[in-house]
## 1
Amino acid sequence: MSGTLYGVGLGPGDPELITRKAARLIEKATVIAYPALAGEASLARSIAADLIPETAREIAMNIPMTVDRGPAQVAYDLAAVAVRAELDAGRDVVVLCEGDPFFYGSFMYLYARLKAEYAIEVVPGVTSMTACASVAGLPLSARNEVVTILPAPIFAGSETDGGPARVLEQSDTVVVMKLGRHFGVVRAAIDAAGLTDKAVYIERASTPHEVVLPLSQAPEKAPYFSMILIVKGADPWL
Amino acid sequence: MSGTLYGVGLGPGDPELITRKAARLIEKATVIAYPALAGEASLARSIAADLIPETAREIAMNIPMTVDRGPAQVAYDLAAVAVRAELDAGRDVVVLCEGDPFFYGSFMYLYARLKAEYAIEVVPGVTSMTACASVAGLPLSARNEVVTILPAPIFAGSETDGGPARVLEQSDTVVVMKLGRHFGVVRAAIDAAGLTDKAVYIERASTPHEVVLPLSQAPEKAPYFSMILIVKGADPWL
């Protein structure tokens, strides 16, 4: 009988924000897989490090970070081969995922390759989005407020279609994720919409390297794991 | 010295989806508060039941479910008085919150009333949104896809302004939350947008009463704790 594939959300970075279910699956795992950027330590592995049994077999999935998607797709093909061998041998595989596996998570690439043939269980995790709201002391949404999540790359070259500008104007709460090298153009769009005063910048929420600042005081450069929260709702409880 | 107020997210319903941080805070709590709808058992308390110490003092916040906001605001005023008394006596108070405290959560009403005077820590939790995606086997968003979250009540009477219809047309992923009595009008709008085939209905994700169905096969009536996920993205990994 084939093993089961578990896609396990680890939350935003603080090991204490791992769920009890994820912790138990990791603690009793015989095979653990995780993404690692070529040449770097795996962030996912570091979040779960205190739970990984010494006896577990580890599969590091080396994913190249290129704008062209081809190389990453090949890397997921290779990872699927390695995971498949374990499942076929009857061993369960626990895949470690930063945040939530199905919310901008890389687990879905493995999921797509294996879902037709194997039993797969996805364990949801705390997203960086609500972790950022918590550390910023900023309730994201109440009652009938609309929340829109915009990955930063869509701001690049969007001057003509107006998509992000319309969202900034119309949505009650806007979450801009994955700032990285698009931080400048995002910042300019928020400024043009007159929303800089309502924008909060958060970097690496819930980790020792956490940064929380009004957008107007944010540094020039932002890492990939950073976001901006814009909450327009007036205090909705008064 | 005053106590600290903890707003603790419990996740979508499965006690195993409570984070380790939330579990530890609850296990050592001396005072625990939670919302309860008038005359009913508290859902939040039931999720955390196995963790609550027998010795803990419990504060049930009786919140009326009325369309008019006035009575609920009075209830939160009263709850704040009770919580304040504990904090002033130097005792920490752990408030149990379904899902995530700052994502359509009622904790923010208490937060607004007490944040100026007391130390408050918010512990994020797994949202029902990603839990629904997990049980539906439906990745919510990849790469640069835009996600919009629409509370169902905004569909009522929106024929004229076109807001929800525009979101259904333009957003890559649409999450419609809190269906309840607005299920009919939401369903009609999704049908009019030609998206019924891409819509999945989920009720009480991660609980023993979980329901996952294509929207076309969903029951006539939906509870408050239900949602629809519409994911338009083609398999983005192939």
## 2
Amino acid sequence: MVDIATRVYNHKWKIDPIVRSLIDTDFYKLLMCQSVFRNKPDTQVTFSLINRSTHIPLANLIDEGELREQLDHIRSLSLSRGESTWLRGNTFYGKRQMFRPDFMEWFEGMRLPPYHLERKGDQFELTFEGKWHEVMLWEIPALAVLMELRSRAALGPMGKFELQVLYARAMTRVWEKIEALREVDNLSIADFGTRRRHSYLWQDWCVQAMHEGLGNAFTGTSNCRIAMMRELEAIGTNAHELPMVYAALADDDEELARAPYDVLSDWHDEHDGNLRIILPDTYGTKGFLDHAPDWLAGWTGIRIDSGDPATAAQTAIDWWRARGEDPTTKRVIFSDGLDVEKIKELHAQFAGKAKISFGWGTLLTNDFRGLVPNDALAPFSLVCKAVSANGRPTVKLSDNPNKAMGPADEIARYKRVFGVGEQAAQKVIV
Amino acid sequence: MVDIATRVYNHKWKIDPIVRSLIDTDFYKLLMCQSVFRNKPDTQVTFSLINRSTHIPLANLIDEGELREQLDHIRSLSLSRGESTWLRGNTFYGKRQMFRPDFMEWFEGMRLPPYHLERKGDQFELTFEGKWHEVMLWEIPALAVLMELRSRAALGPMGKFELQVLYARAMTRVWEKIEALREVDNLSIADFGTRRRHSYLWQDWCVQAMHEGLGNAFTGTSNCRIAMMRELEAIGTNAHELPMVYAALADDDEELARAPYDVLSDWHDEHDGNLRIILPDTYGTKGFLDHAPDWLAGWTGIRIDSGDPATAAQTAIDWWRARGEDPTTKRVIFSDGLDVEKIKELHAQFAGKAKISFGWGTLLTNDFRGLVPNDALAPFSLVCKAVSANGRPTVKLSDNPNKAMGPADEIARYKRVFGVGEQAAQKVIV
């Protein structure tokens, strides 16, 4: 039986919305948002979309009007009662009331601020200006909208069965990855694939397949909405935007050198246990650890997000040992450019030396490589970053010069202040 | 929105029926049924299920109670008004009113006769006794029920996503076959896979995928229900049961020798054009053609269903030429043990020498080989045959001694009467 009311209701949709919830976002955005809401509530920040894959002409593939409709739809969203209940009532990392009442009250009334969209050649210029803790919440939905509109552009001309076989092939691929990962003893892996996913429904499928296929080895998803709907753990801690903005706000070189530690000092006051995860690479992992205060060595673990992951992990292990810590009690989370082979390789290399986890992103939730002509669904490197704070440009160096961003003179200054020398370039996959 | 009424209605199902329509059967069964209804209305025939794959212990895999429920459900079916309208109003092979009013009137009132089911070791003995034109209609639903219950037994322990990936893999396999067949110029291929399909829904999917993927090269399906629902051509002509029963009814060797031609004489009176397709192998292709009356050489084509297909096709081509016919105007339909490689090979070998068609069966609608542990979904060789007529045993020789059936002394007699010498054994795939 066709439910006529449902059918008629569906007819009334103006668009098929890509982002349907304010918590269809990464968990760490909410943690960071709360931190900023408390510590830097007056900071003005600009976020900007950057397509690092310049060979993908987004403005030719995606209709500007449709993009505006999707972004306008996101601006119409507010936290639903059930979402608010989940954030207030759930345990995160084993802890209740992770989100404070004053933050929740503000979040319940929050709407995303305006966006600025302009076509520039065959790319879009998409920026968000405003209070840091508001504009930062644009990052994930903006990326998800652009990724999915680009997917839709490639899927548009396909037939019904062709589409079904496309997804059949993609499902088979994900399942084969899961089968390969089943062979890894004591695996601990989470989904970090929200931002560059193929689509919401596809991420949701991948997460559920991981859950069925890997059981307890699958530790959860970074996506709050999916974590809520599927009753899974929400996973994530903090990201580069914190040190980038703190650094941009520094008035002189001395403050700049201290900024990355100030971030973690604020974090230290707010969080403990498994939320105390160092992200050391914003201005070079080696220098960051060398100059780190001793209390940071007491933190629970480290996340490796750029450069050669094995080198970075070994650097961290050596650092812990040098600071009198037992590395085997520490957690090392790999989260950059992972796929099955890399996961198995890193696991084999570091099992026993530290507790190993993986945050698996784009090649979990968007591996459609080779499945359509011209590889029109291959993932690409789209980011949305804080580019300025209170009018000053931000800088990111990371452990891979191909991921560096900011004005050239500022990059040079940061390199000097943080003592970053030659870096080995790594291909940015996604 | 959940449609509550639908949900409640679904709760009321006693079983999930496998066969839901009397025309979920092969088109040629209906053509033959009409022919028998006219020419041999009083013949008493016994059909019997035969599992040629004795290593598959059907009675251990399938619950007898469930099997009875499915068979009982089939006995409750009658022709629906829409199905009757379709049979009466549709064009088949370009012709209207293929089914005569007296036949349709009888068919509209028909219910399938009782079955006899008994467990014998780890196999089932399943037989149908009664008027030929009634019991013959058990063949396809009986096979479909056993095939699908065996599929369900293998699928039962599987998880939700495991199942989805299983079908994803099977879909990908079918689609890759379709992609390979797209490269064959002037292909003409139909679905003949009802009897040993994985399931009804799966056959329906395969047919639709063939339709989308091959366009006009896909000429239709033998399944009447699917042809009706998907607005495709229903395909099929006649089968071995006609000469087998006619032969069993023969009173002496002379009548026996004439029986296969008597069948086609009756057919000749009823049908013309593309329905005049010779099935020559029941008692050996070579002898059948050598002794055939000249009017048979005027028929439209031939169907190759056992033995080495290339040899049989060449035999037919030589025979047409010897009888003064132009083989390039004749149709050769291959329908035995086909898969993509064989189809491409036969097409390459005979294109230009005759009009070539393919009736693709089990390896279209049931190729789950290698997709589950112990290959528990691999197709197997289950048949349901007329084993006696008016108390006399039937015999089939075919061009493959591995497909021969009947009592040994009768097989010897038939071989003598039809002058069948040494035959090359072919592995029976499905």
## 3
Amino acid sequence: MKNFTCVKDLGDLQVALKEAFEIKKDRYQFCELGKNKTLLMIFFNSSLRTRLSTQKAAMNLGMNTMVLDVNQGAWKLETERGVIMDGDKPEHLLEAVPVMGCYCDIIGVRSFARFENKEEDYNEMILNQFIKYSGRPVFSMEAATRHPLQSFADLITIEEYKKTARPKVVLTWAPHPKALPQAVPNSFAEWMNAADYEFVITHPEGYELDPQFVGNAKVEYDQKKAFKGADFVYAKNWAAYADPNYGQILSLDRSWTVDEDKMALTNNAYFMHCLPVRRNMIVTDDVIESPQSIVIQEAANREISAQAVLKRMLENL
Amino acid sequence: MKNFTCVKDLGDLQVALKEAFEIKKDRYQFCELGKNKTLLMIFFNSSLRTRLSTQKAAMNLGMNTMVLDVNQGAWKLETERGVIMDGDKPEHLLEAVPVMGCYCDIIGVRSFARFENKEEDYNEMILNQFIKYSGRPVFSMEAATRHPLQSFADLITIEEYKKTARPKVVLTWAPHPKALPQAVPNSFAEWMNAADYEFVITHPEGYELDPQFVGNAKVEYDQKKAFKGADFVYAKNWAAYADPNYGQILSLDRSWTVDEDKMALTNNAYFMHCLPVRRNMIVTDDVIESPQSIVIQEAANREISAQAVLKRMLENL
Amino acid sequence: MKNFTCVKDLGDLQVALKEAFEIKKDRYQFCELGKNKTLLMIFFNSSLRTRLSTQKAAMNLGMNTMVLDVNQGAWKLETERGVIMDGDKPEHLLEAVPVMGCYCDIIGVRSFARFENKEEDYNEMILNQFIKYSGRPVFSMEAATRHPLQSFADLITIEEYKKTARPKVVLTWAPHPKALPQAVPNSFAEWMNAADYEFVITHPEGYELDPQFVGNAKVEYDQKKAFKGADFVYAKNWAAYADPNYGQILSLDRSWTVDEDKMALTNNAYFMHCLPVRRNMIVTDDVIESPQSIVIQEAANREISAQAVLKRMLENL
């Protein structure tokens, strides 16, 4: 595996899961693999879980790590040719990106959708520039359209807790006061489709995700219907994808908040969320504090997914 | 030792001091102890000495370190249940804190008194939330009411320089243009009482510290009387503790500045301060530059106190 | 070598180059040298290449690294004696600097010219305070008047690409929208003089550099004449040095931009720049993207120059 930006990069998911569980048994057993290898983590957006879990994963493998925090929007790179650079952009990406590649062996990049230009977001401009110009293997630490380290951790968690071979997994939209990217739901949908679970997406009308991610999922606009018989409920907010509302909040309807009444419709489902989560918007206190809530275990698996990915990338150097 | 927040956690001080001096002889002799162990340092307030000395101590022990700078006040965690989180707090501490615990073995926390609510400050709300919810051993890198790594370094320094078994140690208030927490003087008092030195606290009326920290110390309102025969003078500013003036500046009286005339009253005392220090407010240039000033040696011992604490915590994992 | 602030500190350049090429062959061969040694990197100005390359170099040598970002201008240290410190400066350098030295073995400092006071800039006040008061070996990660790690990397690069024993090297001024320090051109001139190449400096009138750096270089005000027969063209902007224009922009004349027509006058010269570079101000897209452009290779050598310097300093501890 050279780059890691989506589920396809992992190849056979069963093999990848086996490697992940092997790592989880003893996360220090491969600590020689990363010796004299350096991970550069570049954050165009702030991070807590992703930074800590990825850095921890790299250190488990014996890697050196360097973190570069690019102030949100403050580091403006010119991307066009022919521009007379006498304005606020001090550097061209064609110099900046290869130079960063000089000082490391693997690059992780976090760069969210900006909701300014849908095409630019969905073309993953920044991530792809690193892949094209850095000269190094690159992995996503959440990009504009996907968050594959999160989705891989989600998959690991479901495999750990599932009671049937092919559980019913429900991705449900829930309200949130700010407009959030579709990276997590897109990516989760992509991975659930690849894992071949029974997969249902439920959201208010207008919140349809990009069809390339929805894939074979069943889309159900009635949240209660969707929850029936669910083994896992995965809650997440996202802003609208479809034109002309791209990046807009269409609803703050708290009747979509996941509560005990709705969870009672499920097959004693586990509750999941990528965190951070706004309580009593996305989910009630009672549900997230219940024994069926596995949000902390899910977050803990971020270290495992990152380590499995880094291990593959190190082996491929 | 599981957590480290105050002098009691160390147990027998003579044993702890012996361990500290053992470390100081060769600070790399325990570099295998921290192998594959990760320290997460969380700063709710900025830091220079504490961050560098603690990180250095952890690296001396072979630990990996991660630093999380929480912009002052910018990371607002919800702490109540039942709140509809549609405002400026994006995360509840009941998710945030356990997740941070997932990615490390030991957590250091710095969180100052805010002077907004005396009860909240003196209950050590933030530090205690980490102890209660992180699932990891926690130590204070200066909390609202105590700065035990500083006090331990102070104790080590006094033991190195003292010329009698039971020296006279004077903690003196001195003026400062900003309102400062009582963490350092509280903690120093607690440790001096525990060390059973002859201990005197001197300050203008109105600056009385919390009696639980004053303990058996003699409180003397006449600074010159207090200095007589002192072996160590420990200067520090703090804002008022007693109601209704909690967190207020009551005096900027520079007649309390430590100068050569006052030091001449002592038993050729050593001068100490936790740094940073404002010259000619707290202490004159002449005194802090004199051979009796041991502020740099005291700061250097911050690495030793942190390493002794981390060593204990690692041994207890 | 104790400190490293200018070319003289390296001694015989041929020996230093030999060491650098030895490192480049296998940059991990000295990974035991830095064991239990800590590098503290202090940035008074922001950095990308310097921080990453120096940190990487230190890790290649097995060192621990700590980074201290001093917000631009935000950390104000008092430097005078006798001042009553009741204002915005919370600490005196005579405490701050020695304490930083306590927690590390080697200190790297970045501190640019501020263009507020020419004498202060050219006296290298901040860098020299660290040398004088930190108690540790200190190296420059770009100071007010020199950028020796850059110049050493430049020298390494020229040695790698030169086709004759004594190539013709041309340092050319080029326009830039902001006033930039003279550290890079000063330092480059100093190193080129020391390397005894055929060295020409070209710039508009008024942009004369400090004669102590110009040394034996030929100064040519006609850029095209200067370029004739050049083997290396090193472009860089700088603000005026000579009084009364110190720190001022005297020209934005884009006829000084390095383009293909001018490069055609050279002996098929290589194009160099320290980066970041503003395209179509300093150099056209065509030139910087041409096969003769070695700006990325030059940047990559920053790791090598830093490692050669750190290796020397470690050997001298």
## 4
Amino acid sequence: EKENFVITPRATDYSQWYQDVIQAAQMVDQSPVKGCMVIRPWGMAVWDELKDELNRRIKETGTQNAYFPLFIPMSFLSKEAEHVEGFAKECAVVTHHRLCADPSGKGLMADPEAKLEEPLIVRPTSETIIWDMFRKWISSYRDLPLKVNQWANVVRWELRTRPFLRSAEFLWQEGHTAHASKEEADGCAREMLDVYAEVAEGILAIPVVKGTKSPSERFAGADETYTIEALMQNGWALQSGTSHFLGQNFAKAFDVKFQNADQSAELVWATSWGVSTRLLGALVMTHSDDAGLVLPPQVSPVQVVIIPVGRGKKENDEKKVTAALKSQGIRYKVDDSRDNMKPGPKFYEWERRGVPLRVEVGPRDVDANKVRGEDDGRGDLPFDQTNFAQDIKKQLQDIQTGLLDAARKRLEENTKTVASYDELKTKLENGETGFFLVPWKDDAVNEETIKTETKATIRCFPFAHNGPGAVNGKKCFYSGKDATHMALFARAF
Amino acid sequence: EKENFVITPRATDYSQWYQDVIQAAQMVDQSPVKGCMVIRPWGMAVWDELKDELNRRIKETGTQNAYFPLFIPMSFLSKEAEHVEGFAKECAVVTHHRLCADPSGKGLMADPEAKLEEPLIVRPTSETIIWDMFRKWISSYRDLPLKVNQWANVVRWELRTRPFLRSAEFLWQEGHTAHASKEEADGCAREMLDVYAEVAEGILAIPVVKGTKSPSERFAGADETYTIEALMQNGWALQSGTSHFLGQNFAKAFDVKFQNADQSAELVWATSWGVSTRLLGALVMTHSDDAGLVLPPQVSPVQVVIIPVGRGKKENDEKKVTAALKSQGIRYKVDDSRDNMKPGPKFYEWERRGVPLRVEVGPRDVDANKVRGEDDGRGDLPFDQTNFAQDIKKQLQDIQTGLLDAARKRLEENTKTVASYDELKTKLENGETGFFLVPWKDDAVNEETIKTETKATIRCFPFAHNGPGAVNGKKCFYSGKDATHMALFARAF
């Protein structure tokens, strides 16, 4: 590992900064497979912390984990017309089930005699195979709601990839639910969006705007897509999680009906919802700085790193410190096994990796009632067995709150409006970024024109700005016609 | 769901009994993709309990979780000669990255214009891609040992499949480690086998025999394969976990060297080790009976199910009971939401699903200091706030111990010896099963002959019977030559 890795400053090259931060933090590495990333232990540990938090909340909604096949028969994709449109162009296709020696004498090839009768798709998402199973499991209203979730890998073939943000393979959870009524299904989709927002804000300290996607940005096969949109430090938006009300589209495609209490057959209503390792990209771009990764304590695999300094009776001191941390359930690590590294480089490394608190413990420090916090401005921490860990815990809470507050302030300061489309164009041309909240008359053609001309897209129609009467008397900032929504425009990743 | 599902008795058709048990317990379902299973919530919850237990122990050995790509470039497979031999004939091959409309006008096809330059293999195991990354991560002895693990899906194309036991896709963990010395690597492989045995016996209540595989049964690319072998109720063996000492084979194939303390370059030593959802098959076939699944409490998602009976002030009673269970960290479920089901069928269903304890709580039961345990012979349980949950906990421990003891007794009683190969053949022909421990002179041709003639294979050379001097003066039961090992033969799944 390169110890002296220099991180490109954000001001110099934001995109390179991002790549540098995740590499310097050892979160991720390029793999030999185009577009596929290797998630290194540090990145995986962050994902696992996030996963635990989200998994618990998903279970609390009465959803159960399950596992469905990686492969989807090609014909399944065609059953829902919009769905196939959305995914056919970016899927990995399995055509053979065996390799054989290449007759040219060099290497291997797919064995022509082991060609599959029907190609299989590596799942880009699992609606089709899950609804095929739901047909077997649902017969009566008593079987509803049926709520399952899986933690899985999915593949969407992308030409331009970036670790976490866009990659051919990524990890995610996908929830799929079946309901007896439209209202219940829609309510479920909205409830899950709330869960995502709660985790984004409460755990990752990423403030988000909740809203509805415009029809042209909906998930392929959905009647309505809800989204949480976050604002990165460079003023671009990042879609961080989506939840779909699928109407009866998949029930129709896969013939899934239930008998209601009156003994008559009805089509089932559906939702699906997912967040992915993309959230780690949002995490990096919300908090990190030119010194490297910054992790909110709630999601940091190590919340406090103890770096022993000097010689002497430090072991006992460390034990007292770690015992205190343990008593408060704080995740800590003692970095004492790398004798070839001085404390300075250790501090530097843990800073780059985003550990919230780094403290050094030297001989007699504990006797002298102190351990040294390395972050300037904080200075020495008073140490005594009863208060030290609580003090650390308080500091961790303050850091968590501070990160969320700072990000929220940035989001608020960068949410603005414009009086006209010309003004938006000029601002974007001049390099201004952020969220632009404007009255809008829903129109797919106009939306596409704006995207082509400015690269800005409708991130969502925010719930908070689309209550009853929200657009009364307002005119669309683009067409001048009566507005149908308040829309949030932005450049996006 | 069919409530009156009848489970085929073991004596009638063991194989059908297995299928019936896992279906009646709602652990698994057939998927529309040949050879791929759907793991239903109950099966998934059992796997998740097992996963948590194993994951914690893996981390305690200093191993970190990571994630590597699903796809492996075809050429990687060829780099290790034995490895490719082992896996080329059973892998799913991705050849295209897009679908297009079939010109015949019907449906879709792999787009000929989106053919990959080099086919990708869906990982059957990840040694090759991981060792390609290890080359980037290892340069000095200070980088060693390097120990990573991933929880992932893998695909091995099988023609004859059975849920959990043998399926095209399955879930597993695969650990991969790199070491500076042969001794350390071999020690690591043996340590992980101990971890597997501990989880099999301590959590799943499956007694196992630890040992070394014969050379012809080794993992493709290993210098030595260690295994835990369990004995199912029908007297067949089930390989339940393996750990491989890979020597320097993958280091050579992927050119992974480290600088030792003397500044000279050496090849790295390797291990890999894995257990899979196959363990769930072992679990089912070790404890279950003609009434359905039997789960050891340690791995049961629900340890106690509370079934309310009668009417009256039962809600308060239930609350007292559940509060008591919660205080002891017991996993419980109150089955109170299915008003259309009588207590009888509920009991029957939870029994089929393997819940260790099923208790009914009726009005005034708690006041009367009792709840009814449904398992005969146990009768009413005295209930009072302080002792009830401890009593339940004690019962759960007894059930756990009882299952292990019974399985261990069966394993011991069914481990026997034979004086000659003729005796073995006769016994197997007469339908006798179990483990046969015999002196053996290692010989791949003889091993193959025995397999062809009797379908019995060497499950392992048990550690416990291959200590120093174990074969002194003994002659091979087949060839009559000086024995090299004590070998354990059995029919196996």
